[in-house]
From TrEMBL:
Residues 22-49, 293-313 are annotated as: Disordered. Belongs to the DExH box helicase family. Residues 103-270 form the Helicase ATP-binding domain. GO terms for molecular function: ATP binding; hydrolase activity; RNA binding; RNA helicase activity. It is an enzyme of class 3 (hydrolase). Its EC number is 3.6.4.13. Signal peptide: none annotated. It comes from the Eukaryota. Residues 22-37 have a biased composition (Low complexity). This is RNA helicase. It catalyses: ATP + H2O = ADP + phosphate + H(+). Residues 293-304 have a biased composition (Polar residues). Residues 349-528 form the Helicase C-terminal domain.
Amino acid sequence: STQKEIIMSTETEKKLGTLLKTTQESGSSNASTSAFSDQQDRTATLGLKRPESTSKLLDSLEKESFNVALKERQEKLKGTESVKALQAFREKLPAFRMKEGFLNSVSENQVLVVSGETGCGKTTQLPQFILEEEIASLRGADCNIICTQPRRISAISVASRISAERGESIGESVGYQIRLESKRSDQTRLLFCTTGVLLRRLIEDPNLTNVSHLLVDEIHERGMNEDFLLIILRDLLPRRPDLRLILMSATINADMFSTYFGNAPTIHILGFTFPVAELFLEDVLEKSRYSIKSSDSGNYQGSSKGRRRDSESKKDDLTTVFEDVDINFHYKSYSSATRRSLEAWSGAQIDLDLVEATIEHICRREGDGAILVFLTGWDEISKLLEKMNGNILLGDSSKFLILPLHGSMPTVNQREIFDRPPPNKRKIVLATNIAESSITIDDVVYVVDCGKAKETSYDALNKVACLLPSWISKASAHQRRGRAGRVQAGVCYRLYPKVIYDAFPQYQLPEIIRTPLQELCLHIKSLQVGSIGSFLAKALQPPDALAVENAIELLKTIGALDEMEGLTPLGRHLCTLPVDPNIGKMLLIGTIFQCVNPALTIAAALAYRSPFVLPLSRKEEADDAKRSFAGDSCSDHIALLKAYEGYRDAKRCGNEKDFCWQNFLSPVTLRMMEDMRNQFLDLLSDIGFVDKSRPNAYNQYSNDMEMITAVLCAGLYPNVVQCKRRGKRTAFYTKELGKVDIHPGSVNARVNIFELPYLVYSEKVKTTSVYIRDSTNISDYALLMFGGNLIPSKTGEGIEMLGGYLHFSASKNVLELIQRFRGEVDKLLNRK
Ligand code: CDP
Ligand code: MG
């Protein structure tokens, strides 16, 4: 029998070898093109189909040898140099000391809550402990661990980190899957995915068949997806008694999650951090004054290349720096803030001059160590980058490594962020609150905290999303400070006064109660878990009833739900498209009206972001470039479309780089849009709306602007504003909200508003006032025909009634088209 075992195990070895090869192949095709180069990868990306579990492919005898082979391989890898080196690092992490206790609790309890300071090793170690243990106990074939991450970037970075710690390439036993790409294979036993990907999988696989362990990470952030997932999981656990659920959170509010899961046991990982001094604005300013005085000694040793030293002014460099910042101004606002209220300060922009000066101060006056700067968003990060690159001291690339870090950054040079910089080079990371807890940079010694984060909120009464930088919570402030004390004692510079800090709320509000809920509600319907209202009532903190009502009403208006809140055929199709329901509807209508290419492009831009960049210094030129794409269409959406088409043509000739540069476009965003278009096309083909082998059949009208704007109208309805005269004022009005403004960045911002009777828009946001961002001028007949539920399909009354009107005001072309496609639209609305 030993003989037989050996034979079996070599055969399994071979099988394992083949599996390994598959990974490498799919890995390399991934790198060169998008994620859809082969069937296996594509289905993985959609998150709808499960890869066949390896264990199913093997009979029980083979499975045994497979388990043995996995174990042998794991043992073998442990001996390699790179693994040994990282093992030493791993053993120093606080999580390592808890390994035994953790694994015991996992085997004894169905639900476990683990909390610990950020950086203690929860994300990289805990799932890995389970994986190692399962393989070592010869259960490798049947083990299938999933760990969710709120953000794409952390799913990738963690998966690659663990692969390195195990001495493997990414996509072997550890992989990841995010909306647009995946690296996984049949032998993947630990998969990192975004919470969104897991939620999609739950539609098809409500019992999470074959999943042995599920870890939900960063639950303390209270993201909408995570809160949503927890409701589903609480209902699922009794049906899957063998499933193990591990909730991972930073140190705050772990008890709340334990209570939610029937007092599940909690493990707390005691961390070690060094003390971090805390300076508030008043102290920072004190410190800077001190610097000016003490700078008389002139011990600054920085680069003197090109620096106007002494010749023009006898002033010391530092004095110049802090005069630029205008300390008086800050003192004034500080003292008035103490007199006035917190609100008076809330509107204030982050003062990038002060941020820059603080960074300079640290570089000149403080010891070595990386600086981590918390800003609110991409705008500020890029503004500050630009500023710092123009700064003679900081722009010195031989001395400073300045790195942006932002959640939706498509390509990050991962290692640069985590690795120690070369000697004599200081690392400065400009980040959003992503660096608060999901990404840990070890060597940070200085944190510069602006005290704000961009937060969405939802005004249910006015049905408008608000996106404003607002003060962070005390919990966030604590997290930010903690980032500075990981390798030695650190300093946290808070660029706001202590009185402001004292007024911070303890925790941030959960996202589920500050976001519009239509996508969530549609998702709930597709899970078939009963009524939306009663499902959401089970949440950790249920959303406002009015917000739920608004979402349901919108879904009814666009025809995704019927009067009884049941999913219509349209609603069912929308569930398969992982985008906002309005964008999904635009895609479906676009296929029917044979302009699928423009619909894909516009949907990709709306679902991701606009490819237009706004360079600060050349704003006028950038606006002109955008307007020239729009032509006389009065449409930001057409501008997006034309810009993309120009990029695609330029790419064919190989000069897309120049094209993007000349037209103020982001090549990175455009590439991402390309990937998204492919993914949307795959989804549309999966549900039978397009036949990819006959692209022309779906693009007969792709150059017909009238048709495209009509499709936009059909998709974006009821997002319509009307140009109206009220009293003396003529302005744009919505049904609910009254007056709105066109965003200054829109191509319609300078058009005479009388030429814009109706605009459809993709997003309306309340910042300083209510703005509609991207908008398109539509004709009133397009609105009549395509608004709401499209043409009344049963009686056809609508089209007859409008016929006469249309003959006068619409081009014949469109009328004919509408009549021709009526059958198709009926089918969409009735197709089961
Ligand atoms: O999840 P938690 O915040 O508890 O910690 P973690 O993400 O598991 O990180 C543990 C350690 O691994 C940190 O000290 C990180 O610096 C390091 N790490 C890394 O070097 N590279 C990564 N991609 C992720 C983590
Ligand atoms: Mg973590």
